[in-house]
């Protein structure tokens, strides 16, 4: 969830496999610098991040503010 003092939103391109053609097509026309990195999926959220991330309930409430608890 973005706070008023957060920097501009960035886009993420996640690829299951390394495929230069798909990445070049997806980024065609992008004039801003692009960073490239690898990532590793984890089954559990690291403890250091657990308190910094919103809960599922918070995310759902943000996405559907008109829906009340049933």
TrEMBL record:
Domain of life: Bacteria
Record-linked Pfam families: YhcG_C (PF06250)
InterPro entries according to UniProt: PD-DEXK-like_domain (IPR053148), YhcG_C (IPR009362)
YhcG PDDEXK nuclease domain ranges (all copies): 2-54
Name of this chain's protein: YhcG PDDEXK nuclease domain-containing protein
């Amino acid at each position: 969830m973005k706070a008023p003092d957060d920097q501009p939103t960035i886009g993420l391109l996640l690829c299951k496999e390394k495929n230069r053609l798909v990445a070049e097509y997806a980024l065609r026309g992008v004039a801003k610098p692009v960073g490239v990195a690898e990532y590793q999926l984890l089954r559990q959220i690291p403890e250091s991040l657990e308190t910094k991330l919103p809960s599922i309930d918070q995310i759902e409430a943000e996405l559907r503010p008109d829906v009340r608890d049933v």
